[in-house]
Amino acid sequence: MAAEWTSLPLEDCMEAIIDYRGKTPEKTTFGVPLITAKVIKGGRIEPTGEFIAESDYDAWMRRGMPKRGDVVMTTEAPLGEIAQLDGSRIALAQRVITLRGKPNILDNSFLKFLMQSAEVQEELRSRATGTTVLGIRQSELRKVSLTLPPLAEQKRIAEVLGALDDKIELNRRMNATLEATARALFQSWFVDFDPVRAKLDGRQPSGMDADTAALFPDSFEESELGHIPKGWNVKAVGEVVDCVGGGTPSTGELKYWEGGTLHWTTPKDFSSLQAPILLNTDRKLTDAGLAKISSGLLPSGTLLMSSRAPVGYLAISAIPVAINQGFIAMKCNASASNYFMLNWCQSNMAEIEGRATGTTFAEISKQNFRPIPMLLPSKELMAAFSVRVATLYARITANLRESQTLASLRDTLLPKLLSGEISLKEAA
């Protein structure tokens, strides 16, 4: 550590600590977005579906108003998730604490990265209490030691690390747009039947060439699903794609896990996905472990859907992968591609969830999933759709891989910069 760096307890670096624990606001369906612990993930605040009434805002926020640049931290369930506020009007829920550095001592952007560092995270855990859920009291949080370079250097470090975060965020937004484009195309072609309706009215379907337009019929017919494009078929999911499950080799048998290189996934891996593509898994299996799973190693391109805890996480695996018992894996084909099935599942999730059973938690079995009726276009139209959206998902995958590389670089630089092990010049 450089000689001019100092170490101070957190409370000596703070202009404000705003703590809303011990209170629960009355929630509404619209109003001011309520930032809860569950939407602070991976350094960012995800969209929230919870709000408080505008009329309650001033009274609720009387302990202190958040400002642009403030750092928010979850104090339990989970402990230690960090993000920075962008100045949007928000309300803070319990289990979220706001930190604001003293202007002449601690840069808030540097604080965000500092709180994410392994050293600070470890101290948070060491000062936490609880058996079922770890949580930290404000009195203990105030004692956490922060190592600070001079303010100008803090800002330069935050700028270097922030540039990586900015690019990762840009990729996330690009992927959200690309995925929305694919969903909109599926909705138009296979739910709203826009091209068929256009031809029925004597119009040329918009947004497509003549060869693609010729693949759509110009009339409807009756089916068990109601009016459908003429010549299209209604089939059960299980007749169209091969649906398989997975398993978990004994976790007490080291030979199944130790030194494993084969990807094995659980729904937990899906909870942090920012796009429906699986690039990696938290745990790996050995060949001996894989032999204990009847479905074996599923090929790249397999569509995975969590069948419980919760129902409905979806992703196409970009890697060969084995699955645990919390999934239904769909081996797709020319009749229904993985891109088509991904969008079909997203569009029909209410139907899928409605067929789930269970008292402790909902679960949809393969037996209940396979009979769900689905509408299929011709193989030629299926191929045309798949080719068109394949470029979108290829770009999504490339952006995810780039973000993975950038995150790895950031996480490598973070402790080295924060400890002074490498200089800013070396980092650049």
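The above is record 1. Record 2 follows with the same two-line structure.
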Amino acid sequence: MKKYVMQEYTIEELDRLDDAALIALDWKNLKCLNGRLLELHAEGQLGNETLAKLPRKPILCIDQIERIDEDGIDASFSFPEDAANWAYDTEQSLEMLFQDQLDQLVGFWGSRKADGIGRALSSGICTLHQSLDFEAGKKITFAMTRKKWVVNKTTGTGTAIFDGAILDAQGELVLETKKVIVGILLPSEIQALRAKYGGELGVEAGADASTLSGLQIPIYDEGSKRIEETESGITVNATQAISPELWPLRFHFKGDPVVPGNFGTHGMIALLKEVASEQFGVIAPIFKSMATKKFSGMIFEDPKQIRFELTGVTHTEEGSVVAAQASLYLEDAKGDLMIEAPIYTFKKLTVAAKGE
């Protein structure tokens, strides 16, 4: 049986430990974690090889967790000083990449409470208060407040519910999300879903993320967009091919590849931005808010396509463009539905010109 070293540490003290010493710690009871511990967790080296893991870099954008306890989590991330060390295209929209960090932190908190695998389930209103773009050396912090931990008496796992916020260096709100809900599932439950939906091909883990540059978060495929005028507003559809070669699958999660749900959200937002520009003349639209987000399925690595659908798209008097509902469907290579209902749904997805 593995023997854990029980001791309280500061971030500075953790930084002085080598990997062997870090692996010997009881990570589930530490009150703070340095970046290397988070990387070891993502690699499955903290006794979590078959259990929940953080995503690997570059999807993981958390440098350290300064506080984690029953009440919440404080964590931080700093953009590299040199843009050449940033894995993504510096013009890439980042709000959903960092929304994903909020979900990951809640899942990490839940994985300390129960053995299992975390999956984001839903969230309430999400609002962007200021632009969230690459800025060399800029530091942001994540502030998570626990609302509830609901134990599943049948499986021994549970569901964590938090409010989350991203703050700038001055403590001003950048993005906030209410009721971030992440469930901890048994590995057998994930395996059953993989068997049902064909996600059993496996994906080779990616190389060192420090070698990556100019990455784009995948969106809908060129030429796949279809627009229809309806009585309730515009309806828009577009598709994106999924295959084991899709780069996010190499980093999210090791041994359990799945497309990040918030990357699907990003694709939906990108589609709405394009519609806002082309159909309503909105100049350089940015994400503003969504009322709710719900994930009821996962995008595994088996070849297929996903279909984005925006319905009830209208241009408001205030200048925003709103999709009353946005949905993501799983389809096979022929375009037939694999599941009748959408696996992602969003309400009141909103974009607007910057500054409005």
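The first strand starts at residue 64 and ends at 68.
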